[in-house]
């Protein structure tokens, strides 16, 4: 269940009690993930402020992403069809309101889809090369070690705020706690623990959802800077009890991502 069709990774912000926001992708744009499940939107979240997460990107196929370099967006492999020249994707950057006159848009030029994604190796990541760079764009650094693969994470996106709901005009945000591989393998026996990381609440209520696929899961590092630890990948429904969201584990994939990014001019 990738986070494109039934995208379930709905991000929610917890303020005393669970308050969540959802990011969803149209089912028509969705593609099944590595386990045949579908991706999320932010459920149980709240609106993000303009400039709060300046590196967030909305992709026209109904996915999220984050600026990796002036000319590259990091997203999920299941959001794209394959590797090669591609001018069909529009990336929207620089505004929490997708209809804002201040938004910046670029079309795609080339897409690289991790070839191991659909194999036992896994790794749900892809890079979208833009037709021209967004000079000076804010970037979200990626985790290069497991040091930040625990604790409480932030999720954000324009996906559905409820399972099966509509995509959002405004960026939503939420927080979700780390779930151990051992616990996550109960609902997801085929979890690829070497390249996937789970987060969510036992009671549900906060998660990513349809349309949030490809967006980042992130937290503060020891210097209080944001660092990306996950990529919205898949989950069962959106914010269901005992079904956390599953994310590509960026720390395990960072070397491959960086190497390909250098080839693409980062």
From TrEMBL:
<protein>
    <submittedName>
        <fullName>Trypsin</fullName>
    </submittedName>
</protein>
<keyword id="KW-0720">Serine protease</keyword>
<dbReference type="Pfam" id="PF00089">
    <property type="entry name" value="Trypsin"/>
</dbReference>
<keyword id="KW-0378">Hydrolase</keyword>
<keyword id="KW-1015">Disulfide bond</keyword>
<dbReference type="GO" id="GO:0004252">
    <property type="term" value="F:serine-type endopeptidase activity"/>
</dbReference>
<dbReference type="GO" id="GO:0006508">
    <property type="term" value="P:proteolysis"/>
</dbReference>
<dbReference type="InterPro" id="IPR043504">
    <property type="entry name" value="Peptidase_S1_PA_chymotrypsin"/>
</dbReference>
<dbReference type="InterPro" id="IPR009003">
    <property type="entry name" value="Peptidase_S1_PA"/>
</dbReference>
<feature type="signal peptide">
    <location>
        <begin position="1"/>
        <end position="29"/>
    </location>
</feature>
<dbReference type="InterPro" id="IPR018114">
    <property type="entry name" value="TRYPSIN_HIS"/>
</dbReference>
<feature type="domain" description="Peptidase S1">
    <location>
        <begin position="42"/>
        <end position="262"/>
    </location>
</feature>
<dbReference type="InterPro" id="IPR001254">
    <property type="entry name" value="Trypsin_dom"/>
</dbReference>
<keyword id="KW-0645">Protease</keyword>
<dbReference type="InterPro" id="IPR033116">
    <property type="entry name" value="TRYPSIN_SER"/>
</dbReference>
<keyword id="KW-0732">Signal</keyword>
<dbReference type="InterPro" id="IPR001314">
    <property type="entry name" value="Peptidase_S1A"/>
</dbReference>
């Amino acid at each position: 269940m990738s986070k494109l069709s039934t995208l379930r990774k709905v991000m929610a912000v917890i303020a005393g009690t669970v308050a969540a926001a959802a990011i969803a992708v149209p089912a028509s744009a969705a593609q099944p993930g590595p386990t045949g499940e579908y991706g999320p939107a932010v459920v149980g979240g709240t609106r993000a402020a303009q400039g709060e997460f300046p590196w967030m990107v909305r992709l026209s196929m109904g996915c999220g992403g984050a600026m990796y370099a002036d000319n590259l967006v990091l997203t999920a492999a299941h959001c794209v069809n394959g590797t090669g020249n591609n001018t069909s994707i529009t990336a929207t950057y620089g505004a929490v309101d997708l209809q804002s006159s201040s938004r910046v848009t670029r079309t795609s030029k080339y897409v690289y889809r991790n070839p191991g994604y659909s194999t036992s190796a896994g790794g749900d990541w892809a890079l979208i090369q833009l037709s021209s760079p967004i000079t000076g764009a804010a970037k979200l650094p990626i985790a290069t070690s497991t040091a930040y693969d625990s604790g409480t994470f932030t999720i954000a996106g324009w996906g559905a705020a409820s399972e099966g709901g509509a995509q959002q005009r405004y960026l939503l945000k939420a927080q979700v706690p780390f779930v151990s591989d051992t616990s996550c393998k109960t609902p997801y026996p085929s979890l690829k623990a070497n390249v996937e990381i789970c987060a969510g609440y036992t009671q549900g209520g906060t998660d990513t959802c349809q349309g949030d696929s490809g967006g980042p899961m992130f937290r503060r590092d020891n210097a209080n800077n944001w660092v990306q630890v996950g990529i919205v990948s898949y989950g069962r429904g959106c914010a269901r009890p005992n079904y956390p969201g599953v994310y590509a584990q960026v720390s395990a994939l960072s070397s491959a991502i960086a190497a390909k990014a250098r080839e693409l001019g980062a």
